[in-house]
């Protein structure tokens, strides 16, 4: 696979995890890695040039240290401006963008902030968000399936990753019963539930058609589950190596917005999470 993997690097400890994830992935796919640090906040104030210069020097030293730590084909670049805009612009010429998240798991602090979500939503290439915790060994690549066009892109990305990793592809379609007032429907009819389950299974079958011919050695696990999509995906992905979802952002404003499922997953990362447009 051609193209670069770009990594957004900051002084936060999780940046090392993001760099390590990207370098390991690049080694498998024979890609190059570029580390980018962004110095933001300049407003043109008098005396700011000296401060900006010092910040850029420190950022370059940070990148040089990381490049030396991991070795290999790793480039570096210091940019100035808004971190979201800089990384989104850089993604136009990249095969993948990797960023870290300070989210460490349930009960450990706030969910991921808005900047990371805007980067994931606005990026021109797939974005992988790495949480700030040891992911362990993990097994399988989980992908959310809903029958949409962007879901097809997510499936193709997830299948390729699973095939490269020699891991099973775990395709998940989640169905949610119609919400009604508590007194209106205490018990759903069995026929309704069975039809909802069948519809989810049909969505999986149609969406995965052709995967086996393109990846003959890939093991595919199909799971049609009842519940809330982000909760079900999070639970299944907790022990996976990667979870892949699509974003439905469109247009000048919408491209900086995520769909509810991808946003909820990024808010409470179950594992390394890829967002595919």
Automatic annotation (TrEMBL):
Residue ranges of domain UspA in the record: 1-131, 141-277
Domain of life: Bacteria
Signal peptide region: none
InterPro entries: Rossmann-like_a/b/a_fold, Universal_stress_UspA, UspA
Similarity-based family: Belongs to the universal stress protein A family.
Protein's UniProt name: Universal stress protein
UniProt lineage: Bacteria, Bacillati, Actinomycetota, Actinomycetes, Micrococcales
